[in-house]
Amino acid sequence: MKKFSLLLILILVLGFQDLSAQQDPQYTQYMYNMNVVNPAYAGSKESLSLTGLYRKQWSGLEGAPETITFSAHSPIGEKVGLGLSAIKDELGPIKETNVYVDFSYTLQLGAQSNLALGIKAGATFHDVGLTSLELQDPNDPFFSEDISNTYPNVGAGAFFYTDNFYLGVSVPNFLNSVHLDENGIKYGSETQHFFATTGYVFEISDTFKLKPSVMVKSAFESPLSFDANLNALFYDRFEIGASYRLDDSFSGLVGFQVTDNIRIGYAYDHIVSDLDVVASASHEVILTFDLFFNKRVLRSPRFF
């Protein structure tokens, strides 16, 4: 009976991860972090692009999710793009690290229209720190060892873009994984996620642009998650915006292009779901560095 009770605790922990898997990866500033979920985005900019992101989910809730992301991508020649991403998630005693490489190939459909097709491959390193849990019986053998598993995975995507419009679809993880199989009962399993992103840059004047964007994501056989965003860009330097995540949160975003190479952004999510009782906010910071290959002015400055 005692073992059953302790196992129930573990199931709840792993089940909680399943609830958050619907939002994984969950980024408010997704429009500046797209190659993490869509390999076809790799190489779409005329630069070696490096991005670091930190997200504190449900701030104030002990053991709440924290995410650290690093990604890099670059064109190789005219048609090929390569990318790399590493994502570290922590949720209580659960730690998960995803490492992927991306490959994309771009087809030029017109003078300003491109269609990139991409694939990604990598692995997920999943750890559950059972020995770190505080229990009534610290000598219980079921919690005497941590759980560590490694799962390979592959994904694919497509990304159509012009100077001021983009549309992407992707499934970054085709293979299912099970984090714990206890007596034939599977807990903490992850399934495929589908992502669709689109956005447009309206040039209102030489100094003012509006940038609406949308992301739709879903774990198959689960409800859709929907993000709608509107950013205003002033003088190609300062950006402010607002976002809404369906049944989850309202967000405020600010960004600043410090130099031609460096951009920093921050997002504040005000939670409106049932979790607002214990945690009212999430925070996200992003830093991007672009190393341009040509000293000349870019053919088509990009704002996504």
TrEMBL record:
Keywords assigned by UniProt, alphabetized: Signal
UniProt xrefs under Pfam families: PorP_SprF
UniProt entry tagged with the keyword Signal: yes
Signal peptide: 1-21
Superkingdom per UniProt: Bacteria
Listed InterPro entries: Autotransporte_beta_dom_sf, PorP/SprF_Bacteroidetes
Signal is among the record's keywords: yes
NCBIfam families: T9SS_PorP_fam
Protein name, as recorded: Membrane protein
Natural source organism: Planktosalinus lacus
